[in-house]
Amino acid sequence: MDVSIKAPAKINLTLDVLHKRDDGYHELEMVMTTIDLADRIDLTEKAAGGIQLESSSGFVPFDDRNLAYRAAQLIKGRFNINKGVHIKIDKKIPVAAGLAGGSSDAAATLKGLNQLWQLGLNLEELAELGVELGSDVPFCVLGGTAIAQGRGERLTPLPPPPPCWVILAKPPHGVSTAEVFGAFRQEKVEKRPQLEQMEAALAAGDFHGICQGLSNVLESVTLDQYPKVRLMKEKMQRFGAPGVLMSGSGPTVFSLVEQENAARRVVNSLRGFCRQVYAVRILGGLGEPNRLE
Ligand SMILES: C[C@@](CO)(OP(=O)(O)O)[C@H](O)COP(=O)(O)OP(=O)(O)OC[C@H]1O[C@@H](n2ccc(N)nc2=O)[C@H](O)[C@@H]1O
Ligand SMILES: Nc1ncnc2c1ncn2[C@@H]1O[C@H](COP(=O)(O)OP(=O)(O)O)[C@@H](O)[C@H]1O
């Protein structure tokens, strides 16, 4: 039997770092939402017990450093599964971009193997397993729009933003999440997210309120270390995008735009300046996903 499953990227609408914890991780408070930029995971059962992995991207590891591979290892070990699996990752989400591509592949693998091997786990149980693989995996298991607290594992679902375009610009380099957290200093933060304001804007479907509430304290690290990322953000703002923010630890910068012609203007403004530009829709039960051609 085969299982194919979509692994969508996320963006952060807000990201606040509250403090550093005794376990070395940072206590976070963020709002995340899934977008229609997705990898595809194909799982094929193998009689022999091993895990094999292939990917369309040369940028991801093919061994147990790959989060999808580690998800399969975790499931096999925890539930004493003797069968093996071939994992094929059709990679569309840029790697080390702040878009949780690896975490989403891991979440999709957990969900797919739950189906393939009929384990009967619910989403909460899969999310609990997911946090052993990475802080963003529980959110990727649940998807939609949610507040994520703790390391990212305490999730509270929220209504999705109203339909809009998400324009993403990804510079050629990636960033290391661990290095960004390592360089983070509270005293350098100029603007902090207002969680209640973002919750109220989402509840009211208030697109402009959502744009005004976009805020990510990790910009204080990544925009300083990578001036090109700052430039990209300024360029998007200059070309009329109402809300512009860096996602996660970066370096991807996104803007939210309501109208298609305005979205095209922002995409065109980035031509010749940034090679990896995507225009996609927000996901979250709002009808069929759509793309700008
Ligand atoms: C910053 C965020 C926001 O969504 O996303 P990305 O930029 O990676 O997409 C996430 O919290 C990232 O989650 P994820 O990429 O799963 O991180 P992990 O593998 O768990 O951790 C990588 C490293 O980041 C640091 N880390 C991560 C999460 C956290 N709450 N505190 C931390 O200090 C730790 O040094 C850890 O070793
Ligand atoms: N399936 C995967 N897809 C992408 N990256 C992966 C995967 N498995 C492991 N990685 C590693 O995880 C790191 C973070 O990648 P990714 O999840 O794409 O970014 P981010 O954490 O910034 O959202 C990269 O160094 C990459 O080598």
UniProtKB/TrEMBL annotation:
Keyword annotations from UniProtKB, A to Z: ATP-binding, Isoprene biosynthesis, Kinase, Nucleotide-binding, Transferase
Catalytic residues (positions): K10, D136
Its EC number(s): 2.7.1.148
Annotated Pfam families: GHMP_kinases_C, GHMP_kinases_N
Biological processes, Gene Ontology terms: isopentenyl diphosphate biosynthetic process, methylerythritol 4-phosphate pathway; terpenoid biosynthetic process
Catalysed reaction, written as an equation: 4-CDP-2-C-methyl-D-erythritol + ATP = 4-CDP-2-C-methyl-D-erythritol 2-phosphate + ADP + H(+)
InterPro entries: GHMP_kinase_C_dom, GHMP_kinase_C_sf, GHMP_kinase_N_dom, IspE, Ribosomal_Su5_D2-typ_SF, Ribsml_uS5_D2-typ_fold_subgr
GO molecular function annotations of the record: 4-(cytidine 5'-diphospho)-2-C-methyl-D-erythritol kinase activity; ATP binding
Annotated residues for binding of ATP: P94, V95, A96, A97, G98, L99, A100, G101, G102, S103, S104
Biological pathway: Isoprenoid biosynthesis; isopentenyl diphosphate biosynthesis via DXP pathway; isopentenyl diphosphate from 1-deoxy-D-xylulose 5-phosphate: step 3/6
Signal peptide: none
Sequence ranges assigned to domain GHMP kinase C-terminal in this UniProt record: 198-274
Keyword RNA-binding: no
The GHMP kinase N-terminal domain, residue ranges: 66-144
Function: Catalyzes the phosphorylation of the position 2 hydroxy group of 4-diphosphocytidyl-2C-methyl-D-erythritol.
Family (UniProt): Belongs to the GHMP kinase family. IspE subfamily.
Name this polypeptide is given: 4-diphosphocytidyl-2-C-methyl-D-erythritol kinase
Species: Melghirimyces thermohalophilus
Phylogenetic classification of the source organism: Bacteria, Bacillati, Bacillota, Bacilli, Bacillales
